[in-house]
Every structure is written in structure tokens, then in C-alpha cells.
Design brief:
This protein is of the alpha/beta class. It contains six helices and seven strands. The longest helix is centred in the N-terminal third of the chain and has 17 residues. The protein is elongated.
């Protein structure tokens, strides 16, 4: 029985290694646009479950961990920005206010499945147009939900965090660790 992280995210790989170095990576080709949910937190959980199940189908003897992260601004979902204008729009909306980051996690192990969403509140300080333009001119916003990486250049925008910091990076380390223990994987 091996552990498979069903994610191509370099941040998730780095954080998974904090739990165990003994895992492999396998990605799925789930059409995320086809998945809908009543709330952003449930959407993150459904996306994670779809990714987990897609990989687990071909690896039933292994433990598979699927994840997905969305940014929630008053119920509106901010995924990865489509382009520079979309990144600008997202950062402008986030500036000077709070938002929620939901990471859905689904773990399939030994015929069982455990799914949950972890939520962290993040507050951005006020930002000038020049700060926004300088940030979206970097590569940082374009592969992250909400168009920002808390561990990179957007760190200077974050005025406060309530909840798990690692969840904002897309992988709630402690919750995943405890779920793996609950499933007798670790």
C-alpha cells in the first residue's frame, strides 16, 4: 500500500513531505468546470473528491489524497485567474478586506473515503494600483486560486490570518495528518 498525492501542485508536494517523504504523485484529468456545488467550501470538497476518485479507480490498493483550493469572497469563487486582467480584478477585490480560503481534501484508503473542507480567513491590507500592477507583472498570481500565493510575493499584502496558514497554500497539513492517522495509514 503506497500513498499517492493526486495533485500536480509543487506547494502540495512540499507540504505532503512534511507528513511523510514516502509518497508518489499522480494527477487526474478531471474537468473541473463540470463540477458545481451550493457553496464554495462544498465546491472545493467536491473537486477534491473527483480528483481523488479518478486516481483511486486505477490504484485501489493505495491511499489516494485529492485536494482543491478556492478563494471565497462573499460566496463568489475565485479560482486560478484566466489572464492578467482577471488577476488584476481578483487582487483589486481582495485588497483592503477579508476573504475565506477553502481547501477540499478527499482521502481514499482501504475501501473507505474521508472528505472534508478546511477554511482559513485571510485579510489583505489596502493596496495601491501600483502595488497591484507590480504584483500581477510577476509569475506568482497565475497558478493559484485567488491570484495570489501567501508564501510568495503576496505575503506583504496579508494583514492577518485566522486558521491554518498551510491551508492558504492549498494543503492543511495538520488536518491531513490527523485524517491519515484516523484511517490507520500512519
Amino acid at each position: 500500500m503506497g500513498i499517492i498525492l493526486a495533485s500536480s501542485s509543487p506547494r502540495r508536494r512540499e507540504l505532503m513531505a512534511l507528513i511523510t517523504p514516502d509518497y508518489t504523485v499522480r494527477t487526474s484529468d478531471v474537468d473541473e468546470r463540470a463540477i458545481r456545488a451550493e457553496t464554495p467550501a462544498l465546491l472545493a470538497q467536491k473537486l477534491a473528491a473527483a480528483k481523488c476518485r479518478a486516481v483511486a479507480e486505477s490504484c485501489p490498493e493505495d491511499v489516494v489524497i485529492g485536494c482543491d483550493t478556492v478563494v471565497d469572497v462573499d460566496g463568489a469563487v475565485f479560482g486560478k485567474p484566466a489572464d492578467r486582467d482577471d488577476a488584476r480584478r481578483m487582487i483589486r477585490v481582495l485588497a483592503g478586506r477579508g476573504h475565506l480560503v477553502h481547501t477540499g481534501v478527499c482521502i481514499a484508503a482501504q475501501g473507505r473515503e474521508l472528505c472534508f473542507a478546511a477554511t482559513t480567513k485571510v485579510v489583505f491590507g489596502a493596496l495601491s494600483d501600483a502595488e497591484i500592477e507590480a504584483y500581477i507583472a510577476t509569475d506568482d498570481p497565475y497558478d493559484k486560486a485567488g491570484a495570489y500565493g501567501v508564501q510568495n510575493g503576496a505575503a506583504k499584502f496579508v494583514a492577518g490570518i485566522e486558521g491554518c496558514y498551510f491551508n492558504v497554500m492549498g494543503f492543511p497539513v495538520s488536518r491531513v495528518y490527523n485524517a491519515l492517522k484516523e484511517l490507520d495509514v500512519l
